[in-house]
Structures are given as C-alpha cells and as structure tokens.
Design brief:
The protein is 85% helix and 0% strand. The protein has 433 residues and is an all-alpha fold. It has two domains: 224 residues, no CATH class; 182 residues, no CATH class. Helix 12 runs antiparallel to helix 13. The longest helix is centred in the last third of the chain and has 38 residues. The termini are far apart.
Amino acid sequence: MLNQFKEKFNIRVFSLQAVQIVRTGSVFLISVFLANVYKDTFIISQYETLGLVSSALTFFWVSGLMTTFLPFYNHADEKKRKAVIFNTFISLSIISVLSSVLIFMTGIIFFKTITYKLFLVYSAFMLFNSPTFLIEYIFLVKNENKKLLIYSIVSFSLQVFALCFPLIMGLSLLSALFYLTIYTFLRFLYLVFLIHKYASFMYQKDVMFAHLKKSTPIMFSLLVGGSTEIVNGFVVRYFTNSNDFAIFRYGAREFPLVRLLANAMSVVLSGEIANALLKNELKSALHKLKQGSARLMHILFPLTLVLLVISKPMFKFLFTDVFIDSYQIFNVYLLLIVSRLFFPQTILFGMQKNTKILEASIVEFVVNIVLAIIFVLLFGIIGVPFATLIAYYTNQFLIYLYVRKMGIKISEYTPVKLWLVYSIVCWIVFILI
C-alpha cells in the first residue's frame, strides 16, 4: 500500500519540497549577500527587523490557508473547484490588506529607529507577496509539476536579484525594497493570469467562509506553536542591542533539510495511519513510521554532525568575521534534530487528535517565552536558543505521553536505540565543540 501511495503522490511531495528548498535558499543567499556587502550591523538589523515584524503578522494565516487548501480543493466537486481557487485568492488578498496595515502601524509605533518609509515600502511588498503563495498550489492541483519547479527557480532567483542588484549599484536599502516590491507586483499579476486561466472570477460567500472555517483552527495552532522564532527575535531585540540582535538572527537558523524532510514524511505517514485505523492495520502503519524514521536518521544525523564540526569556519566564510559568533547560536538550533526525528505527533495527526497537539504547543510557547527572558538576562543571547531547545523537547515529551496513554509503545514507531545513540553523539560533539 505504501508503494502505491508513493507512486501516486511522490512527485507532488518532491515538487513542493523543492519549492520550499529553493525559497529557503533564496532567503539564505540574501543573508549571505547582506553580510558581505554591509559591515554595519545596524543596516542589517533594520532589514531583519522588517522581516521579523512581517513574519509575526503573516506566517500563521498564510500557512493556515495554504495547509488546508489542498484537502479543501480535493473534497470539492469538479464544478466548485474553480470557485475554491478564486475565493482562496480573495481571502488571501483581504487578509493581506489588513496585515500590511498592521505591519506599517506596528513599525511606526514600536520601532522608532527605523524610518516609516522603510515600513511603508515593506508593507506594500507584503501586500502583493502573501497572495502569491497560491501560485505554487495552483500548479500542484493542476499536476503541473515541471512548471512548478521552473517557476520556483526563476521566481526566487529574480527575487534575490531584485533586492541585491540595486544594493550592488550603490542604492539604499529603501530603493532596493522599492524594486523588490515592483517585482513582487509582477508576480501578483501572474497569479491573476493563472486564476483567469484555471478558475472562475466568481465570489461565493459559502465557499470562502467554509475554507476559513477549516483554516482557523490550523491558524491558531500555528500561531501558538510556530511563533517561537518570532518570540525569540522580539526578546533579543528588546533586551539586547542591535549588534547582538543581528548576530542572533544570523545564527537562529534550524537546519532546513531536517524540517522539510521530517514534515513531509510526517504528513505522508499520518495519512497512512488514518487509512490503517479504518482497516484495523495500525501496527503495520506504525512499523512503516519506524522504518521511515530510521532512514531519515541515517541521512540527517550525520549531516548535522558535519555541520556541528564545520559551523564556525562556515560562518566565517559565508558571513565574514562580523557574524562569526552566530555559529554558537546555530549549533544549539542544530540540536533540534533530536525532537524533529521523533514522530509521536504523526500518530496523533493520523488519529485526528489535533487538540492534543494544540495543548502541547501552548505549553511549548509558555516554556519558551519564560525561559527565553530568564536566560537572556542570565547568559545573553546564547541563552535564548537553549530556551527553545527545552521548549521543543518538552513539546515532544508531552505528545509522547499522550500516545503512550493510548497504549502505543515508543518501540512500535521509533527505532529507540538508533535514535538515542545518534542523539547522544550529537550532544557530545556539541559539548566538545
């Protein structure tokens, strides 16, 4: 059954993974470029602050709408699917307008050191950027996987160019953001073209609100459980100076391959678990989860060990001596792999026990923010990622307890010895480094 599932969906999964990798790569390239062009951390701090504020006000609802778009689209009949695309576009556009206003107001009220012009232009950029996430999903539902890959490579390459080339020419950050906004507006027009091609320009209140109803719980869960990075950024911004903030932001990067591959496997196998429950074949599905976990561990743990060893010279090479201390933050974030490659949440997702996931996310959020404030006061910026580490480990431990209460042993879905050995080795290397 798993092989049949892979044959049917693996291309889509790979395509979406590729888009996420390219998007993450474009953000990484911009950060490398800024570190090598600007030696003044204050300017970089301004750019990172713009990104922090916009992420705080957009990530949860964009992800919520996009996460529920595919199942909502697939459950609709052929006639209604065009309306689903258009009304998702309407939802994205309306919330984008509200978010852009909030980004601008937040900037001028709480961030006096950054000019209102920067926030104004960045708000315009976010106004057009947020809806363009729908482009990728239109290609997915239309099985245009090759077009999706080409689009992602060309689109995000041009985005890097639109921001970085003006800076190379000696223009200001404000001018670079202006050109980036113009390019993003062109992407928005391309989205309108795709909607005209694949959908119908027909507002249907029932369709839009049905999708929002499905999306709202996911948005709330993401807001609570996915805001760790944003909370940490605000804590560091408030309790330290702009130099420390820039150093922290450059180091506070989880190894993206771990998150991408782990999440993809979790989504796929949670579906397998849901199907297995209907057929009373849960043990078989749990065994597949155990095997998949082992395969990922053999790939991702060794890569993490290599990064732990080379992170200091890597940061010096990529970001210059100015940001070399960021490697210490990065190394702590690498240890998140211990919780990322432990998958009790996959079982709960498959069983549709989503409230338990939300409860654990709330505990994680509280633990993170309390410890982040305490640790930054005691140890400086290096304490903040340790707060995140403890919060993530707490989250997974609580979910593990929920799963155990249902009578499912850890050995049924996790290669325990392999996971423990790799985890201990990572911690030993971290301490030695």
